[in-house]
Structure formats: structure tokens, C-alpha cells
Design a protein that fits this description.
single chain, about 300 residues, mainly alpha, MetI-like fold, 14 helices, about 0% strand
């Protein structure tokens, strides 16, 4: 009996001492969960994009690149593709600038900082469907006569008693509203990441730069930003992937309107594949940016790794 227990304990010690084997065992549940939740649906979507699958039918024939040839000649798809790039680029630039400013402010010690950090997280932790509906009410997207902004402008005399501004009735204004809501939503996430990067920079480096005569701007651009580049790259990567594949704000606020002018690829894929019943075409729209996002992810991670090593 004692020999068996010793053998059992020896096996456990052997397992605990093998770092690579132990790490693989601990990571395997998470990897399996990711494969089932993301990998299987992704592979199925890629398969559907090469078929003529439609809703309500179990059988589908392989059609090759027919779905992709159809969407690249569709003006609505081209508009959605353009909107996706504009939506992603503009919102990420604004988020990155504002997150940097907020992080630099929140890294300082001042009264009420914990409360302000807590309030900053609220847009990120709140359900996006509820917050978008709140913005719908503020902007009056569904009914301009109920817009909080319009009533405020009327109260201060900017608008007349019979004047109303239709904030989402025009493509440019609707896209601006979508970008505004997405920036408001993503700003806390980016701020927390950059704030974590700022707090990880040793104070001795900042003090040495100050002793050497570097002013605030030189310390920012020659010390802080280069040291934070790996963290900023990861924040930008998450922001790009999340923004380019998100449809919640667009679908709830404008439904892709007016006249399909504010669709992004994710919302158009939902409209064609689910509501339109063209599963193959919807899947082709959904996976269209996959190669580009993979390249962006590879370049961002490589940049982060190289700057971290150097």
C-alpha cells in the first residue's frame, strides 16, 4: 500500500515539475472552449460562403467563388465595405487619442480618482443593446420629437418651437452618430489598457529623463510612447477586430439606413444571410475581411513583440 502511494505521489510530482506538460493541461479547457465557440462556427461560415445554402433547406451545392463575384459587383456591399473602413479607422483614431489623454490624467493622484475610474468603466460594462437604445432616445433616431438634444436646443433658444433636427435621417449624420456611440463604448476599454501600460513604466526612467533636461513633451514622445508601443499595439489590434466585426450599434440605431447607406459588413451579412435567407451570400460577406484581419493581427502582434524585445 505504501509503495503504491509513493508511486502515485511520484507521478504527481513528475507532472507538476514538467512545466510544458502542466501548462498544456491547464490551457486545454480554454483552448477547447475557444475552438467550439469560435473555430467551428468560423469554419462552417467559410464552408457556407462557397455554397448556395438558403434558409429552410438542409442541402447546399458547392458554387465556388460565385457568392464572392456577386457581392463585389453589388453597390450596397461596396458601400458597406467603405463604411466598415471609415467606421473602423475614424473611431479607432479618436479612441486612441482620447484614451491616451484620459490615461495621462487618471495616472495622477487627485481626490475622487477611484470614483472617476469606476464611472469610466460604466459604458464598457453596460449592455450595448441598452446603451444604444438610450442613445436612440437621446438622438431621437426613432422619433425626432422625443430627442433629448432637440428639446435641449429648443429650451436654450437655438431651435424654434416647430424646428426639429433629424440626427439619423441623412447618411453623413447617421454615420457620425454611429461613430460617436462606438467611441463612447470603446473608450473605457482602451483607456484601461493604456493606463495599465503607463503604471508599468518605472518611475526611475521618468526621473532620469527629467534630470537630463527633458520637458513634458519630450518625455511623452521619447520615453512614454516608445515604452508603451507594445501595449498600444495590442489595444489597437483588439479595437480594429472588434470594430470591424461589430454590428450591434448599426443594427439597433439605423438598421443600415437611410437607404442602406450606413450598413457595415457585419450588419449587411446579417440582413442578407438571416433576414434575406441567402446563407451562402451572407457568409461570403461575413468572411470577406477575414484575410485582411489576419494580416493586421499578424503585423500588430509582430510589432508588439519586436518593440517589447528591443
Amino acid at each position: 500500500m505504501e509503495i503504491a502511494q509513493k508511486v502515485h505521489h511520484a507521478r504527481w510530482r513528475y507532472l507538476l515539475d514538467r512545466e510544458r506538460l502542466l501548462s498544456s493541461l491547464l490551457l486545454s479547457p480554454a483552448i477547447g472552449y475557444i475552438v467550439l465557440l469560435i473555430g467551428v462556427p468560423l469554419l462552417f461560415a467559410i464552408y457556407l460562403s462557397f455554397t448556395n445554402a438558403i434558409s429552410g433547406h438542409l442541402e447546399a451545392d458547392f458554387v465556388g467563388l460565385k457568392n464572392f463575384r456577386a457581392i463585389v459587383t453589388d453597390p450596397i456591399f461596396l458601400q458597406a465595405l467603405k463604411n466598415t473602413f471609415i467606421f473602423t479607422f475614424v473611431s479607432q483614431v479618436i479612441v486612441l487619442i482620447l484614451a491616451k489623454v484620459l490615461a495621462l490624467a487618471l495616472v495622477k493622484s487627485f481626490p475622487g480618482r477611484p470614483i472617476l475610474r469606476f464611472l469610466l468603466l460604466l459604458p464598457w460594462v453596460a449592455p450595448i443593446s441598452l446603451t444604444t437604445l438610450a442613445w436612440d432616445w437621446v438622438l431621437g433616431a426613432s422619433n425626432s420629437s422625443l430627442s433629448v438634444i432637440n428639446w435641449t436646443l429648443r429650451a436654450v433658444g437655438v431651435l424654434g418651437p416647430n424646428d426639429w433636427i433629424y440626427w439619423t435621417a441623412f447618411p453623413e449624420a447617421a454615420m457620425a452618430a454611429i461613430i460617436l456611440i462606438h467611441v463612447w463604448r470603446m473608450l473605457p476599454f482602451a483607456t484601461i489598457i493604456i493606463l495599465a501600460g503607463l503604471t508599468s513604466i518605472p518611475q526611475e526612467i521618468q526621473d532620469a529623463a527629467t534630470i537630463d533636461g527633458a520637458g513634458p513633451w519630450r518625455r511623452l514622445f521619447e520615453v512614454t510612447l516608445p515604452l508603451m508601443l507594445p501595449i498600444v499595439a495590442v489595444a489597437v489590434l483588439f479595437g480594429i477586430i472588434f470594430t470591424a466585426t461589430d454590428m450591434t450599434v448599426v443594427y439597433i440605431l439605423t438598421r443600415g439606413g437611410p437607404y442602406n447607406s450606413t450598413h457595415v459588413l457585419a450588419s449587411l451579412a446579417w440582413q442578407r444571410g438571416i433576414f434575406g435567407g441567402q446563407l451562402g451570400e451572407g457568409a461570403a460577406i461575413a468572411v470577406f475581411l477575414l484575410p485582411l484581419l489576419l494580416v493586421v493581427a499578424f503585423l500588430m502582434l509582430r510589432l508588439a513583440r519586436r518593440t517589447e524585445v528591443t
